[in-house]
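Table S2 (continued). Query chain:
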Amino acid sequence: MQPIEIKVHRQSALLELLYPEEAFVLSAEFLRVHSPSAEVQGHGPGQATLQVGKRLVSFRNIIPQGHYAIRIEFSDDHNSGIYSWDYLRELAINRDTYWQTYLAALAQSGGSRDPVVLALS
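Corresponding output:
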């Protein structure tokens, strides 16, 4: 189901999806770590790569892909995920469950949402 309107809130790094009966808000971080790209999801079952350090990621650009999807360009240079309308709605409806699953995977791996900052010497 295609949203009737998409609002990008750049300062807060939020994407608002408006449907006739409801609205959803998804953060850039959430969308980035759940990117449908092969870089994130892999090329088959069990090949997904856990995304770490994406807390501060933001939107650089959102580009329509015909009448079926959008491609999101993120501030960390990731730009290969094409988010179909069905996938965006699935993410929106299941946001809380997907987010808790992601946080659990991060904790189990010892990863962090915070970007790695390298000290200069």
